[in-house]
Model the fold of this input.
Amino acid sequence: MRIIFIIGSLRRNSFNRALAENAAAIIGERAEISFLEYQDIPYMNQDIEYPAPESIRRIREEIMSADGIWIFSPEYNFNIPGVLKNLLDWLSRPLVKGDAERVSAVTGIPVTLSGAGGRSGASNARKRLSELSIFMKMKHMDGPETSISLSPEEFASDTLSLSEEEKKELRDQAERFLSFIDA
Ligand SMILES: Cc1cc2nc3c(=O)[nH]c(=O)nc-3n(C[C@H](O)[C@H](O)[C@H](O)COP(=O)(O)O)c2cc1C
Done:
């Protein structure tokens, strides 16, 4: 089983990346995990959409060879970070220009969402990501989702420190997602 992790932050020391690393450790040998590198993709611009730029082709191929996607994202101004929205805009588009069925690289792929952020635990971004993934015809897992409200100490040290309850949330989500993909 192959699962792609998508991090909604490009920050080197991202809390969301650290959360994803914890999830990868929980999954262990049960799936092959890869982190999608997408810093090099261009802004969506319909002038360059077809044929797709090389970086978009690479990302689509990587995603189409996977069995599921797990998105870990902060929220920026109560919303989906722009870099992640740009990626999802590319992924939302049909592989073949003018395809009436609008089949994209993510059509039907199982997806689950987690987030680390301020007091909201990035829940506003996740709400919008849920709506978007359904709109994009992904197979959205209806919970459980891990929501991390970072403490002032975590922000000050720039280090993620999961409580036992948060670790359990992440374990529950990982277990559920593995069976969701298998179903
Ligand atoms: C442009 C911007 C907007 C932000 N807006 C929010 C917000 O609406 N809600 C929130 O909880 N945190 C907000 N934050 C703080 C982020 O949650 C925090 O920087 C977090 O560490 C980002 O995740 P990362 O560590 O994975 O990069 C914002 C940060 C930035 C840079």
User: Anything to note?
Assistant: Residues 121 and 147 are 5 Å apart (CA to CA). Residues 9, 11, 14-16, 74-78, 116-118, 120 surround flavin mononucleotide (CB under 6 Å). The first helix runs from residue 15 to 27. The chain has one domain: 2-182.
